[in-house]
Amino acid sequence: QRGCTTKGKLTVYEETEIYPIPDDKFTEYPKQFRKTLTNLVELHYERFQGYGGCGVLVNRYQILTASHYVPIDGRIKIVNKKHGSLTDINDSQKNDNADIAIISLKTPINDAYSLKFYEEDIVNGLKIAYLGFNKAGDLKFEQGRIIEVDWKNGAQVFRDNIPTKFGNSGGVLVEYETGHIIGVRAYLQHQGSPSG
Description:
With about 200 residues, this protein is mostly beta strands. Helix content is about 5%, strand content about 40%. It is globular.
């Protein structure tokens, strides 16, 4: 990650008790997406009246999300449908130029999956899927394709043809055949289509 990176301290403002989802919850989805679906998180920020966006645990310690929903220093609630509230937050690092952020946890989520990143070139026409939540907290799974690839402030960015609504920011975009992460739903100054 290149560009201007800032580091901040986040605190938890509320814990949520939820019933863990069963391991077979996502069997209706293709196998290559199930680990990522299990690792999705909802991000709620006090300054946005309790709503933020979404993100994904990329390993036991780190959450990948969009930076425009991550305060430098602020109060946050992170909820995973399997693990409940993730309360032991260490810090955040964000790159606003590329609209990407990592939230680090002090305590590992021991049974969270370590996800893989796509290592091939991202090209026009690449088949992808969006995995995340909508504003109501409902799971969103959409298929689409990359329609433009570019560079912005030292980071590769792309546009796709998957419809986007408020609350989708920070959801993960994956290559369709492998399920490997290619980026997050971001807000960048493009005309027309969503960006990653």
